[in-house]
Amino acid sequence: MNESHKEVGPGATRQGFIAVVPLGKVGIDILRVIGDSLQGILRLPVDLLDTEPLPPDAFMESRNQHNAMTIIKHLSNHYSRHTMKVLGVTNRDICNPILTYVFGEAYMGGSAAVLSCYRLYKGTESEFVSREILLERIVKVALHEIGHTFNLPHCHTGRCVMRASHNLAELDQKLNYLCDYCEMFLSEAVNEALKGRDDAPGHIDPL
Known about the structure:
The protein is α/β, with parallel strands linked by helices.
């Protein structure tokens, strides 16, 4: 990686490509790993923005969880004019109206995604996993959800990070990078998204 991510405070200039927003308290090491990983795959500048609270209307009292779709809508409404894609990161449990929980959520081809670390800390029983496993899981979910925002569908090839993960065992089986087909698809999608931008870094070749 030739260029490190930027940590951006109030009033600072943003690159306008990829933004990572902590929603509530999230460890800076987690945010930096996400930023480095996204930048390494996408080859676009990644900004780490200031912490903001989860939108109050996202909380579902009956389930004691936060609605991922409401969070995505909030992020899209507040950041889509300033950055190409935004990823919200939270330590709270998230779900959608259909599934009892999700590790992350994104609209296909949308501008926003959200990732929850809540269940990624856990092992097969009640113990916590190692820091290494935790960070690997977080990177996989971050890449997977941002991939969806670039219109990458679920992949059925080997252990590609774009495979669907319905539980931690399936998540752990995946690798934290894309298969050749998804790399090519992502490269084309990123280049298409950069068309017409004066600040674009140039043609993005597959890794």
